[in-house]
Amino acid sequence: MFLEPQETMPQTSVVFSSILGPSCSGQGQPGMGERGGGAGGSGDLIFQDGRLISGSLEALMEHLVPTVDYYPDRTYIFTFLLSSRVFIPPHDLLARVGQLCVEQRQQLEAGSEKAKLKSFSAKIVQLLKEWTEAFPFDFQDEKAMAELKAITHRVTQCDEENGTVKKAISQMTQSLLLSLAARSQLQELREKLRSPAMDKGPVLKAKPPAAQKDILGVCCDPLVLAQQLTHIELERVSSIHPEDLLQIVSHMDSRDKHRCRGDVTKTYSLEAYDNWFNCLSMLVATEVCRVVKKKHRTRMLEFFIDVARECFNIGNFNSMMAIISGMNLSPVARLKKTWSKVKTAKFDVLEHHMDPSSNFCNYRTALQGATQRSQTANSSREKIVIPVFNLFVKDIYFLHKIHTNHLPNGHINFKVFQLKVKNLLTLQKFWEISRQIHEFMTWTQVECPFEKDKKIQSYLLTAPIYSEEALFIASFESEGPENHMEKDSWKTLRSTLLNRA
């Protein structure tokens, strides 16, 4: 399961104010080009130095909807559509957008302003297009799809002459249906793909023969294996979507948990990706512990150290961490005679990068370097950034946990906070959550530049892995227990296996 969060603040070092620009709303403080005042209008939005810092849910929803003279900034659209689901289900938000559209249409129709009506309709379609492209799976819900059809039906009524709005709606709908169909097919495929078979282990002294195929018999080049692991990582992480990530926040928010309970199933992609990390760790441990001869076990450990190093060089930190975790599992770590033959200098460097002290400061520095390389890269090879997923989840969780959702006046909290971590940083809860998720999604869209090797990938994904019990059995058979605790554990395991036999 996900890494247990620690009570430390993520040490985010990337300044995002340049991304948001001088105004989060794209319009500066309320005025010309902004939504009008009135109950729940822009008067319920609070700006500070041109930045939106808080507002009532109603005012923020109105700030999302275009008018004849106003269109929200894309950063605000993405941030609000992403974060709003903590407070209101997407289909309810869409219904409110529909109500605001009706109100504006009625005002424009009363004034017989056809040109303005067409302009307004085009902006509404553009907003819906951005919504369906960024969060297509909000529309898996029948209520949301019904609301979408109702809104598009209303806006097409002003486009009887040239049909440009109808054409845009048709293209938007077709793209949305294709996205939904693709995800449905992907989920069906993933359901059929089982986790690697769990080998419960032999009954005492029944280790596999030395000639049995292992990972080195399939791939003996650490770089090639690291590339194939990167292929698998990118394929799996690409099925994660922004709304899936925010389900973590929604599910943890006990105040609003009842609103999001029906969406818990959307964390399937997250759980599947997390499961891949665990399977890779167990596969590494299995490959080491199942080897009969100490010389070959030493070679296996050194091979995986080299694979982890190549993953680091590529920017595939998730596979790197999984490999290190596998080698640090107790059944592997206790093989002192084997480890004494391993040249551990490279492994020590890897463990330094993954040192958990100071909130994984070393890893975060390496991740920042990979991020900067990705931003200036000219090739797909240099764009690869695959963060340690469990740590990314922890960061999103704490950004949510450390700041309240609501201010005392009931406004949703977009307020600027200044926190002393390693340096003085300016953080904004929803802006920062949105920025990090948007950055993560950019990484997931990188096309893997390495040639795919089906034989190697098939082994990585389907090779049987030992259970924890089987790993200890194999470990004790390789190197006997050295202390009373290990002797007791080995005695208990032998007794359990003999009883089964």
Provide an overview of this structure.
The structure is a single chain. By secondary structure, the protein is mostly helical. The chain is built from 24 helices and seven strands. A hairpin with a 2-residue loop joins strand 1 (45-48) and strand 2 (51-55).
Terminal CA distance reads 32 Å
Total number of strands: 7
Strand content: under 5%
**Main beta sheet strand tally, sense and closure:** 3 strands, antiparallel
Structural class: mainly alpha
Shape, principal axes of CA atoms = elongated
Helix content: 55-70%
Count the DSSP helices.
24
Instruction: Write down the Rg.
Output: 27 Å
Question: Widest sheet: strand order?
Answer: 1-2-4
Q: Extract low-pLDDT stretches.
A: 1-34, 36-42, 200-210, 254-265, 415-427
What is the mean predicted local confidence, pLDDT? 78
Give the gist of this structure.
This protein has 501 residues and is mainly α.
Topology (elements, then pairings):
Layout: H1 17-20, E1 45-48, E2 51-55, H2 57-64, H3 74-83, H4 90-110, H5 114-134, H6 142-156, H7 164-192, E3 198-199, H8 215-218, H9 222-237, H10 242-252, H11 257-260, H12 268-289, H13 294-314, H14 317-328, H15 330-333, H16 336-339, H17 345-353, H18 357-375, H19 380-383, H20 389-402, E4 412-413, E5 416-420, E6 424-428, H21 429-444, H22 454-462, E7 465-466, H23 468-478, H24 484-500
Parallel strand pairs: 3-7
Antiparallel strand pairs: 1-2, 2-4, 5-6
Helix pairs in contact: 3-5, 3-21, 4-5, 4-6, 5-6, 5-7, 9-13, 10-20, 12-13, 12-14, 12-23, 13-14
